[in-house]
Design brief:
Length: about 190
């Protein structure tokens, strides 16, 4: 491997480590408590080295948010089964989103990254939501109602409502809602 390729691979690896460490700190400490200095300390490097890879804290947070969105999209795609019933697919979609949110948020303040993305990355956030809508369109028999279905499911997928909707019965509540949505959609299909 050439020196240039080795350097590029090292740079990409360092970048991924910085993003992963920032992600971990956000999950543990919350967004407000995650500074470039804290990331650098956790990695045992200077904050100047972090700034070599990211121009600003906001750039770093955007990279982490892109990672969150990408991993959530992948999880929701894997949850989709073209042979499953509507309610089953909707339930799988909601539970995949919740799993990704819980995986990242040991501290509820970590979910502030969602609002950061909406404010600082409106194009990426909109594309992320369009992806979710496209999955719902594939699932339901009346695609023109995808927005209504997404709004109904939002109570279980909104990061700010995550803990408020968590209980031993959450999976059953999600399944019940999805069965009701399926029954209602059959009238319009």
């Amino acid at each position: 491997m050439s020196k240039r390729r080795t350097r590029e691979a090292d740079t990409a690896k360092t970048r991924r480590q910085i993003i992963a460490t920032t992600d971990s700190l956000i999950s543990d400490e919350g967004l407000a408590a995650t500074s470039v200095s804290a990331v650098a300390r956790a990695l045992g490097m200077s904050h100047a080295n972090v700034y070599r890879h990211f121009k600003s804290r906001d750039d770093l947070l955007m990279a982490v948010a892109e990672t969150w969105m990408s991993e959530t999209r992948t999880a929701t795609e894997h949850a989709y089964d073209p042979d499953a019933a509507v309610a089953e697919n909707l339930t799988s979609l909601v539970l995949a989103i919740r799993k990704e949110l819980f995986r990242r948020a040991d501290n509820v303040a970590a979910l502030d990254l969602y609002h950061f993305a909406l404010e600082h990355m409106p194009v990426s956030a909109a594309a992320h939501h369009r992806h979710r809508e496209a999955l719902v369109v594939k699932i339901i028999p009346a695609p023109e109602y995808a927005g209504i279905v997404l709004n109904a499911l939002r109570v279980f997928t909104d990061p700010m409502l995550l803990l408020a909707t968590e209980s031993e019965e959450t999976t059953n509540h999600v399944s019940d809602l999805c069965r009701l949505l399926e029954a209602g959609l059959k009238k319009y299909a």
